[in-house]
Amino acid sequence: AQSVSQHNHHVILSEAASLELGCNYSYGGTVNLFWYVQYPGQHLQLLLKYFSGDPLVKGIKGFEAEFIKSKFSFNLRKPSVQWSDTAEYFCAVNAEAGTALIFGKGTTLSVSS
Amino acid sequence: DVKVTQSSRYLVKRTGEKVFLECVQDMDHENMFWYRQDPGLGLRLIYFSYDVKMKEKGDIPEGYSVSREKKERFSLILESASTNQTSMYLCASSLPIQGRAGELFFGEGSRLTVL
Prior knowledge:
The structure holds 2 protein chains of 2 kinds.
Chain A: E1 3-6, E2 10-14, E3 19-21, E4 23-26, E5 32-38, E6 45-50, E7 56-58, E8 64-68, E9 73-78, E10 87-94, E11 102-103, E12 107-112
Parallel strand pairs in A: 2-12
Antiparallel strand pairs in A: 1-4, 3-9, 5-6, 5-10, 7-8, 8-9, 10-11, 10-12
Chain B: E1 4-6, E2 10-13, E3 19-21, E4 23-25, E5 31-38, E6 42-49, E7 56-57, E8 64-70, E9 73-78, E10 87-94, E11 105-106, E12 110-114
């Protein structure tokens, strides 16, 4: 069965610090990968996605993620975080067309100004 | 603007009550999903549906059932609510196209408390 592992439960950073959130998945075949974000009091929304092609994908608000197939990883990065990036971040994977998305347990990011 | 609407934002029910959570989407999406979100556990899939009258069990279907009589509506039913079903319930929808099936549009969530 597919699974998604997020390494950090809670990350605390100061504004302008760099961010990297780890995500690993377990599945040997072709996967589609996603990062979702949930800002305080808001619904979950798509941050970025990887289907195929360039393994470095860019999303909204300056976020990017790199797919490393050999490591089964899809880490999220941002060079300089802002206070408004405070949110919960979820990595997710679906392995085949039409299968449901499997989510990791989430990482809470707190950014202090 | 795309929209997934969950009928109740907050519910308080008693143990043993039957609970209906309704979800409607206006995007003509084939796929619809019910997740529950709990602190430290992330999102766990309860049930999903690829088409009208179709349903598939997710990772934690026990104690739940679903109904999809119309394409735009997907209902989650707790036949006899229990305290361990106190949670935030999230409905989502997506297109069925490969890969795009993972681009979920979420509702605001329904926070259920079972006393």
